[in-house]
Write a structure and sequence with these properties.
By secondary structure, this protein is of the alpha/beta class. Strands 3-2-1-4-5-7-6 form a 7-stranded mixed sheet, sandwiched between helices. Helix 6 links the parallel strand 2 and strand 3. It is globular and about 50 Å long. Magnesium ion binds next to loops.
Length: about 220
């Protein structure tokens, strides 16, 4: 963001530039390739985070020395691999997934990544599951990536269950371009941003989909 065009939204990246940077900074190994490619097959939607966002999530966890982390929306485990690999050996990720088939595939991908002991895929709708995780808290980071209309409620849960200095992260924070609409999801996502700004030092990182980031005060 350093000239008037890029400030107005022009992006300089290309597929070739992103491919080069991925090769240099965060190459996929076999486990990441498997999980990434499973999204988009067999009726599973290809809605996993991008490789650079996955790497960024991991680096952010490393920066705060995260040990106990919650993810809401596992899909087939791609982002969970990035998150779990950023944890120390005694760290743990609880990843919540409502869809039974997604959860089963995620467990398989995490097993291939050698992360079975470090990740618990908790099956069920987040609204019901999150209270049952409180006994493991307070948490060092919470990453939201499930139903967008739920972000307001999940964000409030995170604000109560994060340690001071803990991270709240929310993918799709531009709501696919619809953030300023009057749909339930848009209203919830705006509320999520506003609540985050009240209790956290916060910003929305301009990834392609918007990644909201807050540090709990
Ligand atoms: N974080 C994943 C992508 C998640 S996609 C990655 O980057 O690899 C969103 C997932 O949220 C889907 O698998 C969907 O089944 C799940 N989901 C949707 N609503 C949910 C809810 N209320 N509770 C838990 N999971 C939910
Ligand atoms: C959808 C969900 C996501 O988390 C995402 O990153 C992209 C799309 C969706 O539900 O369509
Ligand atoms: Mg997402």
């Amino acid at each position: 963001m350093a000239d008037s065009e890029s400030r107005a939204g022009k992006r300089y990246e290309s597929a070739e530039i992103l491919d080069f940077l991925g090769q240099v900074h965060h190459r996929h190994d076999q486990a990441l390739t498997r999980a990434f490619e499973a999204a988009g097959q067999d009726g599973v939607p290809a809605i996993q985070v991008g490789p650079a966002e996955g790497r960024l999530l991991g680096l952010l966890l490393q920066m705060v020395g995260a040990r106990r982390v919650v993810e809401v929306g596992t899909l087939v485990g791609y982002s969970a691999i990035w998150l779990a690999r950023a944890l120390p050996p005694d760290g743990h990720l609880w990843s919540v997934e409502a869809d039974e088939k997604h959860a089963a595939l995620a467990r398989e991908h995490l097993r291939c990544a050698g992360l079975t002991d470090r990740v618990t895929v908790v099956e069920g709708a987040a609204q019901g599951v999150l209270p049952s995780l409180e006994t493991h808290g307070p948490f060092c980071a919470v990453f939201l990536d499930a139903d967008k209309a739920g972000y307001g409620a999940y964000g409030r849960w995170a604000a109560k269950n994060l340690r001071p200095g803990g991270l709240l992260l929310g993918d799709n924070a531009y709501l696919f371009g619809d953030l300023l609409d009057y749909t339930p999801a848009a209203i919830a996502m705006r509320r999520f941003h506003e609540q985050m700004a009240e209790a956290f030092d916060s910003v929305c990182i301009p990834t392609p989909d918007g990644l909201a980031l807050g540090i709990k005060r």
